[in-house]
Structures are given as structure tokens and as C-alpha cells.
């Protein structure tokens, strides 16, 4: 494939209207505005095409979330409540619409991938990987990655999906969505749950029932650096991928493991996200005809969020793949 490869970026101005109350809350509109500004000034800006998402339709939301929860979320936002389920999960009148557009980005991205795009990055908020079927958690309301995987399976018949989550935190909602499902493999690298939110993601959690073996949690100690991640890739992740053989890969792309980001004790460098991009470009080529969907999760230190995402996307666009 000729280099560099084009990148489709999905984002929406309404993501900025999701107001988390100002003050000390780390999940701010400026995460998206500064990230997009960084991409638009990047050396690979010529490769970028920008798209807007649709709203995720109700019948896709209910492939994971309970009807009652969806009403509770909508009613909380529209009636002027300031949070849902826990004060961490701040919302405002516009938050329901923002959440629908955040979940919809993955669906729009999959439509683009099943048409002629190869690399799609969803620059969205609110994030999704902590959201449970009936619970808002960790700034998340709708589980964007779970809904994308269900859509890929049910709309396009792509059955074997890998969700690789490199956010600093365990994606408890993704794990619970697919714990019993042998066809969606959830693989998460995160700070050890003894030290970190949300307190799940122990190595012993490997799936249940028919899904046993289709969950791989790799908890890392506080202070874990690039080399520990690279070792985990060669020793654990590559063999797991080869054994599973994904038809499609979704990346829960959180950048809060960066050493400058105080939301975790991990100590990743900006360059590590470039290495992750190189591996993912290779895996997309080897398993998925070059197709890859990445959905933003965390990342709260604005400068390192922008630089890390740019490093990741630059590698996706420019890395010479092995095959
Ligand atoms: Zn996180």
C-alpha cells in the first residue's frame, strides 16, 4: 500500500456542549478542541479527512443498555440534573445529545470502513468504556466501544471482533458487555486495579461461561513504562491475537497512561503511542485488510493528549506494514 495512508477523523461541534461543570472536572470540552487543533497543525494534516457522526439510534443503544437506564440518562440531562449515578458523571441539558453523537461516531466510522476508508479515529466525548448497561461511571454514559462492536456484528456480519483497550484504566463496561461472548475478545492494558479506578481488571478475570478465555487483562504496576508495554505486546498480546484471529479491531484509545497525565500512575512516553500505532497498523493489515476503528477514551493532560494522539495517528498513517 502506498504511504502515507489517509485517516478519517470523526468529530462533532456538539461534543463541546457537554458541560461537566467547570471547576476541577478533568473531562473538559478543551480535550477535543485542543486535540483537533493539534491534528490540524500536524505534519500529516494533508492525510486527514473530517466527518461528522450521526446520532446512535435507539435500537443500537439497546443492544447493550437497558431501556430504563436510557430514559434515566435522557431525563437527567433534560430536566437539569447536574450528575447521573455519581458526582463524577457531570452532565447538562446538552449531554444526552452529545452522548448520542459520541456513540454514533463509532457507527458512522464502521459505515466508512465498510465502504472505502481504512483508518478511522473518533475524536469523541463523553468517553465510554466505564459505562455499564444500567450505570454511568467514570465520566462515561454510553459505551461507545461495546455499541460499535455490536453494530459491526449485526449490521455487517463481522463476527470476530477484538477490542484492544490501551487507556490507563480498565474498561469494566466493555468487559461486562462481552464477558460471556467468545466472539468478542476484550484485551486491556491498564494500571493494576489495586491502585487504580475502577478496581476491576485483575489478570484472573478471563471471561465466563462460553466466553472463558476471550478476555485478557494485563495489569501493570504504578510507574510502568514503555518497555513493560512492549514486552507485554510480544509475550502476551501477539500470541493472543494470533490465536483469536480477529476479523475486525476496535481500539479503545485512551491516552491517560502518559507520564504527564495525573489520572494514572503509569509512565508512558509520547513515543509509546507511536509504537502502539505501528503495531496496530501491522495487525490491521495482517488480520483486517488494513481496516481499523479507534475511539478516543481518556487523556486529560491537554498537551500530552494532543501529542500522544498525533504520535499514534502518524504511525497509523506512515508505518510500513510487514505484509
Ligand atoms: Zn482512563
Automatic annotation (TrEMBL):
Which Gene3D superfamilies does UniProt cross-reference here?
Histone deacetylase domain
Record-linked InterPro entries = HDACs, His_deacetylse_dom, His_deacetylse_dom_sf, Ureohydrolase_dom_sf
Domain annotation Histone deacetylase: ranges? 25-316
Single Gene Ontology MF annotation: histone deacetylase activity
Could you mention a single GO BP entry for this protein? epigenetic regulation of gene expression
Segments forming a coiled coil = none
Q: Which Pfam families match?
A: Hist_deacetyl
Write out the similarity annotation: Belongs to the histone deacetylase family.
**Name the record gives this protein:** Histone deacetylase
Species of origin: Thiovibrio frasassiensis
Amino acid at each position: 500500500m502506498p504511504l502515507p495512508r489517509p485517516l478519517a477523523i470523526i468529530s462533532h461541534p456538539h461534543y463541546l456542549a457537554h458541560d461537566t461543570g467547570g471547576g476541577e472536572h478533568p473531562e473538559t470540552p478543551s480535550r477535543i478542541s485542543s486535540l483537533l487543533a493539534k491534528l490540524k497543525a500536524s505534519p500529516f494534516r494533508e492525510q486527514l479527512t473530517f466527518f461528522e457522526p450521526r446520532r446512535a439510534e435507539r435500537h443500537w443503544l439497546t443492544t447493550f443498555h437497558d431501556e430504563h437506564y436510557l430514559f434515566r440518562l435522557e431525563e437527567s440531562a433534560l430536566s437539569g440534573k447536574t450528575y447521573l449515578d455519581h458526582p463524577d458523571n457531570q452532565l447538562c441539558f446538552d449531554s444526552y445529545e452529545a452522548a448520542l453523537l459520541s456513540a454514533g461516531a463509532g457507527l458512522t466510522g464502521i459505515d466508512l470502513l465498510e465502504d472505502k476508508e481504512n483508518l478511522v479515529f473518533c475524536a469523541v466525548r463523553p468517553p465510554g468504556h466505564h459505562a455499564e448497561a444500567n450505570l454511568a461511571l467514570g465520566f462515561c454514559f454510553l459505551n461507545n466501544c461495546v455499541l460499535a462492536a455490536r453494530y459491526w456484528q449485526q449490521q455487517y456480519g463481522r463476527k470476530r471482533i477484538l477490542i484492544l483497550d490501551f487507556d490507563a484504566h480498565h474498561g469494566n463496561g466493555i468487559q461486562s458487555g462481552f464477558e460471556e461472548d467468545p466472539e468478542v475478545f476484550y484485551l486491556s492494558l491498564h494500571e493494576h486495579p489495586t491502585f487504580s479506578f475502577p478496581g476491576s481488571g485483575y489478570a484472573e478475570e478471563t471471561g465466563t461461561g462460553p466466553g472463558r478465555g476471550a478476555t485478557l487483562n494485563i495489569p501493570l504496576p504504578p510507574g510502568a513504562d514503555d518497555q513493560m508495554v512492549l514486552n507485554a505486546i510480544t509475550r502476551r498480546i501477539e500470541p493472543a491475537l494470533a490465536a483469536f484471529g480477529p476479523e475486525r479491531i476496535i481500539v479503545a484509545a485512551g491516552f491517560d497512561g502518559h507520564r504527564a497525565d495525573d489520572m494514572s500512575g503509569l509512565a508512558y512516553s509520547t513515543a509509546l503511542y507511536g509504537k502502539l500505532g505501528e503495531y496496530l497498523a501491522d495487525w490491521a493489515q495482517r488480520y483486517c485488510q488494513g481496516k481499523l476503528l479507534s475511539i478516543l477514551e481518556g487523556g486529560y493532560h491537554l498537551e500530552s493528549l494532543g501529542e500522544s494522539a498525533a504520535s499514534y495517528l502518524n504511525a497509523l498513517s506512515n508505518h510500513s506494514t510487514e505484509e
